[in-house]
Amino acid sequence: xxxxxxxxxxxxxxxxxxxxxxxxxxxxxxxxxxxxxxxxxxxxxxxxxxxxxxxxxxxxxxxxxxxxxxxxxxxxxxxxxxxxxxxxxxxxxxxxxxxxxxxxxxxxxxxxxxxxxxxxxxxxxxxxxxxxxxxxxxxxxxxxxxxxxxxxxxxxxxxxxxxxxxxxxxxxxxxxxxxxxxxxxxxxxxxxxxxxxxxxxxxxxxxxxxxxxxxxxxxxxxxxxxxxxxxxxxxxxxxxxxxxxxxxxxxxxxxxxxxxxxxxxxxxxxxxxxxxxxxxxxxxxxxxxxxxxxxxxxxxxxxxxxxxxxxxxxxxxxxxxxxxxxxxxxxxxxxxxxxxxxxxxxxxxxx
Length: 351
Hints:
By secondary structure, this protein is α/β, with parallel strands linked by helices. The protein is built from 9 helices and 15 strands. The strands form 3 sheets. Strands 8, 9, 10, 11, 12, 13 and 15 form a 7-stranded mixed sheet that branches. The N terminus is likely disordered. Pfam families: Bmp. It comes from Actinomadura vinacea.
């Protein structure tokens, strides 16, 4: 997206009402009562590439927004990013939301970091959140950056991969070769080696290089990469490729090998229903929790700028147990988690 307990993505509720807008799209406006006297908020959310419905990273953010709607009186507008767009487009999107009175405003994905830092200066009374803040750094008294110890969660699924592999060979597929995804790779490989020092890890495969971000949205790229790693003997493959990972899951599942999902618990995703029996686990990032915490803090007037880290100590990352595929190694995984929390295991963030 989480720990040694079963987790699942918050159930998505409500349908998005499509709004045709200049090059970007999707407005969803609704008011939920039951806020207990809470003030009404207009929340603007700018998705990363793929938007709501990517069945991964963006959907986890959407789930957090849906959870907010069930407890607070809010109006929302959602806008999706376009592939390979410049920072200027992200700035325009955020400025559009702020000018329309949306407060707070959320940018989903590290690519929004520079845009939020810039636009926030022009709207000092608007609160901004960046999910996956680049290098876990943001600027401004009205900006919060949520970042995740994806390397810690990846360590646990890497250990699971090594322990469950019968061919003693595993693989990793990253969407785009950027530092954030390299952190997934680093944790995964470290966890695998810790659990089984003799494990063979195939060279990591990245689907695209920046500034090409198709690696986060094109399933065909994931399909081809998965075929290559299966041919290399891998019987467990972990993807950190967003929407492109759907191709990885389907391909590995069709070959009846183990695949590991990312960001949300991908076990029950309709798009990969045929592969669910081969989804070993998922590394979950609680993006939904970060969105909910932020909006609630604005509503409660407890907002604090800076950065907030979601890691194993606060169950901000972890692993999914849906399908009970890791039951036989769960005790070991939970032991590794405890050692990481206690500082006995230091997880690298770079390969």
